[in-house]
Design brief:
The complex is a heterodimer of chains A (about 140) and B (about 180). Chain A has about 140 residues and is of the alpha+beta class. Chain A contains four helices and seven strands. Chain B has two domains: about 1-110, Orthogonal Bundle (434 Repressor (Amino-terminal Domain)); about 115-180, no CATH class. In chain B, helix 3 (about 45-50) crosses helix 4 and helix 3 crosses helix 5 (about 70-80). The chains are: A alpha+beta (about 140), B mainly alpha (about 180).
């Protein structure tokens, strides 16, 4: 578990085609503006307060992988790891977007998939970028 | 932090988005403060439950950012157990954003009545302290950003402190040293 009450720098994993996997996931989900607000709120909490808010970070069966929970019509579970490089206590990298229903992830084995991406990132340090917020669609509709 | 503030300024223009955002933050803020207050007093969840007339599992639920079914009566019980008063008010989104940026353990801690030095102070000291604390809770760069926004009401005050402006019933201060440091 992360033990801290400090600001974290957040990153997103980039796939082999150069796409930000978190943005691709959000754009492919039936995500309302309110859901995007909820999701950004939880992620900002992580960035601002670390693990101070109780129950913010949920462990998975994979030791290095954790996720947030954003409840709504669909439960969103963005998965992330600490670091994974030297700045282990000051950085987190979002690896995969998942949803949860009846305690089962979609995609199935999302935590293991996230672990694979973490391992890939560990040997390909350039496959991540600064975390992008999920407000894209929200801002597009504003004149 | 400055990027985040600018992003919130833009995205909060959408009503659905901003309400979703602050709903989630409100849940997290209450859960976090209950935990911080309990730890400040060195109590276990069981101890707090006993003092509040609840069961420990209930406290565990209340201390979870994902819980959203708050009741005023339950929060009143918790407040009395901490010997604090519950404050429920309607706030502007601008004020809420300040709360988001100041979410730190030390900003959530509160003294119980016996440790509250409020009643030892003069009225003048109390007013000055209240205003200054509102500013001091904010990270410097955010306070700076707000100060620039509110520059219109520039008034010199004593103690090398300048009042930049007032909004939503709160005062914001911006001193010369910070000004120089932030350009």
């Amino acid at each position: 578990m992360i033990i801290m009450n400090q600001q974290l720098k957040l990153f997103d994993y980039i796939d082999d085609n150069g796409f930000n996997v978190m943005q691709a996931w959000a754009d492919g989900m039936p995500m309302q503006k309110r859901d995007r607000g909820r999701l950004d709120s939880k992620i900002d909490l992580l960035a601002i307060a670390g693990c101070l808010p109780p129950g913010l970070v949920h462990p998975t069966k994979c030791r290095h992988i954790m996720h947030l929970v954003v409840r709504g019509e669909v439960t969103f579970c963005p998965m992330f790891c600490r670091g994974p490089f030297n700045n282990y206590h000051n950085e987190c990298t979002f690896l995969l977007g998942a949803t949860e229903r009846d305690r089962k992830y979609s995609p199935t084995n999302a935590d293991r998939e996230a672990e694979k991406k973490r391992a890939d990132l560990s040997v390909n340090p350039t496959k991540r970028c600064n975390h992008e917020r999920f407000t894209k669609l929200t801002q597009e509709v504003i004149p | 932090m400055k990027d985040l503030l600018n992003s919130l300024k833009k995205s909060f223009r959408d009503k659905e988005y901003r309400h979703g955002y602050v709903d989630e933050f409100l849940n997290a803020n209450i859960a976090t403060q209950i935990k911080v207050l309990r730890e400040q007093r060195g109590w276990s969840q069981k101890e707090l439950a006993k003092r509040a007339g609840m069961l420990q599992p209930r406290i565990s639920i209340l201390e979870n950012v994902d819980y959203s079914s708050w009741s005023i009566s339950a929060l009143r019980k918790i407040a009395e157990a901490f010997d604090l008063t519950l404050c429920v008010s309607f706030e502007s989104f601008g004020r809420r954003v300040q709360d988001i940026f100041s979410l730190k353990r030390e900003n959530l801690e509160r003294p119980s009545f016996d440790e509250d030095d409020f009643f030892e102070q003069t009225i003048e000291n109390v007013e000055a302290r209240t205003d200054r604390e509102a500013y001091q809770k904010l990270p410097t760069e955010i306070a700076s950003e707000i100060a620039i926004t509110l520059r219109s009401n520039l008034i010199d005050q004593q103690n090398n402190v300048i009042t930049i402006g007032r909004a939503n019933g709160s005062a914001y201060y911006y001193d010369d040293a910070r000004s120089a440091a932030n350009g």
